[in-house]
Amino acid sequence: MDALKNKSDFNFQAATILIDKCCYAPSVHCSYYAMLQYAKHTLMHKFGINESDFDPDKNNVKGIGTHSFIRNESAEKIKNQLIDKKTAADFSSDFGTLKRLRIEADYKNVEIDIAKARKSFEISKKLKLILQKL
Q1: 42-81 pLDDT, tens per residue?
Q2: Number of folded domains that form the chain
Q3: Ramachandran region of residue 66, left (φ > 0), alpha (ψ -120 to 50) or beta?
Q4: Under a CB-based contact definition with an 8 Å cutoff, are residues 32 and 124 in contact?
Q5: What residues make up the domain containing 40?
Q6: What is the DSSP letter of 113?
């Protein structure tokens, strides 16, 4: 089994457990990385993007960062493969929302409550379902 897919599955499980244990901020972190790892796995295994293509020093990633590269490439594949510009735009927007919630959970001096934890988990699941259609 692919290590990234395994890590993604573990992070989805961890997010569920953390929400159940009222550990909301770390659950947001796990929800975000579960989706990010699954997106990277999808790009590598369904579209042949090499691990080295995600290197922050590569021209395609330089200046935007690995996470934005994964977001942009995934949205592009959704648009091209599903011929669905709305789904691609929604994916990109939801990815941005999930990332903002993860930044709040990891770095900001704000409370992360159950609503934000559940929202992050639901967005993450929604994005994974879209990626599974590719």
Answers
A1: 999 999 999 998 988 887 778 899 999 999 999 999 999 9
A2: 1
A3: alpha
A4: yes
A5: 3-132
A6: -
